[in-house]
Each structure stands twice: as structure tokens, then as C-alpha cells.
Design goal:
mainly alpha, 66 residues, elongated, 18% helix
């Protein structure tokens, strides 16, 4: 009986995706214009939770999807 680990390793190496040439995948991170803090998910999107900077001047609190 052969070594099953070698077969699994070989399969993983041969089937892995090469992401080095991928130009379409990207991530955009929002941050506070005033203090540079990140804008975490499920937080108020009108005001910075860290420094209180107002991103928008509206009376409604907007939160992201869960």
C-alpha cells in the first residue's frame, strides 16, 4: 500500500489556483477621513465611532447589512 499523504499532496499541488495574474479581484476598505480609523461592519455609517467625525450630515442613522 502506497503512502496516501503523497497522493493528497500531489493532488493539492496540481489543482491549486494561481492568483498571481488575477487583476479583477480587489478589496476596498473604508476609513475615517479625520482619524484614519477603519469603519467596521455593523456600525453607524454616518459618524465615526472613534473620533465622532460626521461622514454625512443627515438625521438618520444608517447601518450596514449583517
Amino acid at each position: 500500500m502506497g503512502n496516501p499523504f503523497k497522493k493528497i499532496t500531489k493532488n493539492a499541488i496540481n489543482s491549486k489556483k494561481d492568483w498571481s495574474g488575477n487583476k479583477t479581484s480587489k478589496t476596498e476598505t473604508r476609513k475615517c477621513e479625520n482619524c484614519g480609523a477603519p469603519r467596521p461592519k455593523d456600525t453607524n455609517l454616518t459618524t465615526c465611532d472613534y473620533c465622532g467625525f460626521k461622514f454625512m450630515t443627515i438625521d438618520i442613522e444608517i447601518k450596514t447589512d449583517n
